[in-house]
Give the backbone structure.
Amino acid sequence: MRSITGATRVAGVIGDPVAHSLSPTLHNAAFAALGLNWVSVPFRVSADQGKHVVSAMRTLGLVGLSVTTPHKDLAAQAADEASNTVSILGAANCLVGIGNNRLRAENTDGDGFLAGLYEDTSTTVANSTVAVLGAGGAARAITLACVQSGAARILLLNRTPERAARCAALAPEHVSIAKPTDLLHADIVVNATTVGMAGNPQLPVDPKYLRCGQIVVDIIYNPLETAWLRECRKQGIDAHNGLSMLVHQAALAITHWTAEPAPIAEMRAALLPKLGST
Ligand code: NAP
C-alpha cells in the first residue's frame, strides 16, 4: 500500500452493501501501476442517503466514484452532465470529477462487456444475433451497447415481461422478446441475470436450448464457474465468465478519471487472488 500524504487524491465506490466490492482492488492496482498518488476506498451509503453523495463528492473533491446498487439511477440524475449512454439508460455506474466542482455521469458496463468479449474470444457483436437473458441494469447496458456496436438482432428473455418490454424499448427495431427455443438462432448468448450467483446455483436457461458453435458469456464472476457455464462447457460450447467484463468496466472508469489508458494486466492480476484462478 502506498503511503497516504496530504497530496493523496481519493476515489471510491458507493453502494449498499459495498464490503464485498472488488472495485477498490481494481482501482488501487491501476493507480499504483500508473504511478499516481491516488487511493480508492469503499463508501457504504444507504439508499436514502444517496442524494447527499454528489454534494459530498464536490465538497471533498473526490476524483471519481464507481456506483453500484442502489445508487445507479440517482447518480445518472444528480450529475451536472451525463454521457449519451447514461441519458438513454437512465443509470450510471461511474461519476467523474470534471473540474469547477462539476461531475459527469458515465455508464461503462456495456462497453466493458464488449471489451471483455473481445479479449476472451476476439469476437465483436457486429452483424451478430445476441441473446440477452435478463432485463435489469446490466442487461440494459449490454443490450444498448450491442445495438450501438452493430449487432443485427437482440433476442431478449426475462422472467418479468414488463421489464423485458422496457428493455426492448431501448431499441425496438433491433430487440425482440424471445423464448428459449429461439436461442438456437443466436451467435452469442449472455446471462445478465443474477441466477447462478454464489448462493443461487440455478440455471438461467436450460443448456439444452444452446448449441455448439455459439459463444456463451455468463457475466457473473462469483463464482468464476457457474453451474450454467459448467453445463455449457460439458456440451462443448465456448463459454466465458464475467471476469473480463469486470476488469474492463473498471478500466474504462480509470480512463475517465485519469485520462490515461488503464493498466489492464495489472488490474486483472490484482483480482485473481481475490477470486481464485480462471
Ligand atoms: P438487476 O438489475 O437486479 O437485474 C436482475 C435480473 O435477474 C433481472 O432481469 C431479473 O429478472 C433476473 N432474475 C433475478 N432472479 C431471477 C430468477 N430467480 N429467475 C429468473 N430471473 C431472475 O441486476 P444487475 O445489476 O443487472 O446484475 C445482474 C448480474 O450481472 C449480477 O449477477 C451481477 O453480479 C452481474 N454483473 C456483472 C458485471 C461484471 O462486470 N461482470 C457488471 C454488472 C453486473 P426480473 O426482471 O424478472 O426480476
About this structure: The chain has a mean pLDDT of 96.
